Amino acid sequence: MERIIDIRDVTWRRGDHTVLNNVNWQVRSNEHWALLGLNGSGKTTLLNMINGYIWPTKGEINVLGHRFGEIDLRQLRQSIGWVSSSLQEKLYGTDRTQNVVISGKFASIGLYEKTGEEEYARAESLMATLGCSHLLDREYRTCSQGEKQKLLIARALMADPKLLILDEPCNGLDLFSREMLLDSIQQLAGRSDSPTMIFVTHHTEEILPMFSKVLLLRRGEVVRQGETASMLGSDVLSSFFEAPVAVEKHDDRYYVRAVR
Ligand SMILES: Nc1ncnc2c1ncn2[C@@H]1O[C@H](COP(=O)(O)OP(=O)(O)O)[C@@H](O)[C@H]1O
Ligand SMILES: [Mg+2]
After folding, report:
1. Considering the entire predicted model, what is its pTM?
2. Which of 38, 44, 92, 94 has its CA 20 to 30 Å from the CA of residue 244?
3. Which ligand is nearest to the CA of 43?
4. Whose CA is nearest to atom 16 of ligand 1?
5. What is the pLDDT of residues 112-136, one digit of tens each?
6. Closest ligand to 171 CA?
7. Domain residue ranges of the chain, discontinuous segments joined by +
8. Atom nearest to 15 CA in ligand 1
9. pLDDT tens digits, residue range 149-188?
10. Which of ligand 1's atoms lies nearest the C-alpha of 14?
11. For 114, how many CA atoms within 13 A lie in the half-sphere containing its CB?
């Protein structure tokens, strides 16, 4: 099975702060992973490293079969789709939605390349996959937070990435917008051409059954990783959060509450 991500003994230090400590993580092409950790646990830092924006202080990292140091990082980044709320703010509000999506092909903020029917058709089809065809030709700034996130996922898919990283995609969404976004992600996973996905969150209930593996990250260290069902039990999570929690499972989703 192809290794999408292979991280071995990776440490990242900034001054005397060890942000990531001895991380080991292998992602195979047939797996979708959820990355769970509280604020500041190092999730985004780990993603920045996978995208080649920062380099390990120690250890080795291979992404999509390429060892860092031996590959053109711009080329690598074209194979990785990345959706985050910080990206959402960088895009231009007056751009048309389909142009926001098409710009993903060039990884640009704004659309400067000459594009034709082919790109337009692809954008239209991706917007349909994400359940947001009705947004066609709207100004990006008129879309709701949840609609923007769907557009950003469609945008990330424009370059046919092998790996799709969703960094806290449900942040700021109300309950129903969140469920609609999660539905779209589930739909996407069902497609034969869907990329390997990594879903980053600090809410267990956002972890859909399609995410068969979970990595628990705390203070820059991998506490545990493995099959979702064995990672999201009350005992494992109480020990992970260092506070008693109770987990209830409904429809293959895990709801956590603090126990007083
Ligand atoms: N460039 C940096 N220099 C110093 N510290 C950093 C840098 N980037 C992140 N950190 C620190 O690393 C920790 C993890 O941050 P981050 O990866 O953003 O966490 P998460 O995404 O899990 O909320 C935080 O304490 C943050 O302040
Ligand atoms: Mg983060």
Report:
1. 0.92
2. 44
3. 1
4. 42
5. 888 888 889 999 999 998 889 999 9
6. 2
7. 88-160
8. 4
9. 999 999 999 999 999 999 999 988 899 989 999 999 998 9
10. 4
11. 0
